[in-house]
Known about the structure:
Layout: E1 18-24, H1 31-44, E2 49-55, H2 62-73, E3 78-82, H3 89-99, E4 104-107, H4 119-129, E5 133-137, E6 144-146, H5 150-167, E7 179-182, H6 183-192, H7 197-210, E8 215-219, E9 221-223, H8 234-250
Amino acid sequence: xxxxxxxxxxxxxxxxxxxxxxxxxxxxxxxxxxxxxxxxxxxxxxxxxxxxxxxxxxxxxxxxxxxxxxxxxxxxxxxxxxxxxxxxxxxxxxxxxxxxxxxxxxxxxxxxxxxxxxxxxxxxxxxxxxxxxxxxxxxxxxxxxxxxxxxxxxxxxxxxxxxxxxxxxxxxxxxxxxxxxxxxxxxxxxxxxxxxxxxxxxxxxxxxxxxxxxxxxxxxxxxxxxxxxxxxxxxxxxxxxxxxxxxxxxx
Length: 251
Ligand SMILES: Nc1nc2c(ncn2[C@@H]2O[C@H](COP(=O)(O)OP(=O)(O)OP(=O)(O)O)[C@@H](O)[C@H]2O)c(=O)[nH]1
Ligand SMILES: *[C@@H]1O[C@H](CO)[C@@H](O)[C@H](O)[C@H]1NC(C)=O
Ligand SMILES: *[C@@H]1O[C@H](CO)[C@@H](O)[C@H](O)[C@H]1NC(C)=O
Ligand SMILES: [Mg+2]
């Protein structure tokens, strides 16, 4: 079985277009800032892009803010997918991808944890090594996490360590969610991915290794959200450990 097609060996060209999929839930305060930063960084570097906001009917008026931003930046730059309710990140990526017109897909959070200044670095890393995937890593030199208390740092480190030992994926940050993918690679990986939540990001890397996709890493700093509520819970930690266990026995 091979998942490689002729198009995978294609190098980047000046026709490259980057689709940024931005899932939002209760991000009305963060959205104008993240969109401004994206536009600023990408225009400065002459990168062709579009942003797809996948908005799940947030009660805080995120949709109205998205509409206003679309008016400011243009329909070609900001696209909005409005869904009826909170349906989760996995399906947000799938649905967002269906609307995309780029040949590259960037997944990132809208809560300012992921700084758009790293996007040009992802792209140049991809071009240098002709990688299929670039992942931002918080766990290599130059990377880091800001705003997390000791407990959450420890949880994140331990979680990443357990998964790295169990799954040996060849990347240093398994649960990161700031990544660049060739569109057809992301489509393939999502079609075989079973997990949800934090395990979703981890399974993407494990499957990528199974399919022999090449992965490059760029150190990123990760900043915890300032606006909006954190959604991590002890349930999620338990689900995570279950996920590592299931992945371990399924590969
Ligand atoms: N469309 C959509 N977006 C979501 C959903 N859940 C989370 N998001 C968005 O996905 C991104 C990541 O979610 P976060 O809640 O920041 O998850 P996290 O970073 O793991 O946890 P905290 O930042 O601590 O809350 C953010 O942009 C959220 O607004 C969802 O069900 N639907
Ligand atoms: C979203 O915001 C509403 C109020 O604006 C709040 O009641 C709800 O708990 C928030 N949901 C999440 C998941 O943050
Ligand atoms: C990946 O590479 C290994 C080693 O070269 C090979 O055995 C395996 O069949 C490849 N897998 C796929 C899906 O191409
Ligand atoms: Mg977050």
